[in-house]
Write a structure and sequence with these properties.
Layout (H helix, E strand, L loop, with lengths): L11 E3 L9 E6 L13 H17 L4 E5 L2 E6 L24
Parallel strand pairs: 1-3
Antiparallel strand pairs: 2-4, 3-4
Length: 100
């Protein structure tokens, strides 16, 4: 079983190019292997696959993995509200501006 690196549990995984449109690509993920998505696949294989992606993304300094057929790219995206839960609810509020 592939153990998660620190902060890897916060990596967001997406297949939508729109989710990384405002992000900076920081690296191509290597040796992630094929996704074990066939019927009856071992759930542990899926967890290992996702953990490898998450670990490599963190290693590149990213927080989002963009998955395409047979490959993945690590991105550093602006932090968003709900980023630790995997939801993208828009930009975080600007806490530097005085409120009125």
């Amino acid at each position: 079983m592939t153990v998660l690196a620190p902060q890897a549990d916060k990596v967001r995984m997406t297949e939508s190019p729109n989710d990384v449109a405002n992000c900076k690509a920081v690296g191509n993920l290597d040796d992630i292997g094929p996704a074990p998505l066939w019927p009856g696949a071992d759930p542990a294989g899926q967890v290992n696959y996702e953990n490898r992606i998450r670990n490599q993304t963190v290693g590149f300094g990213g927080n989002t993995a963009f998955l395409t057929f047979g490959s993945a790219i690590a991105y550093l995206c602006p932090l968003t509200v709900g980023a630790t839960t995997g939801h993208n609810d828009g930009p975080a509020p600007d806490r530097t501006a005085p409120s009125h």
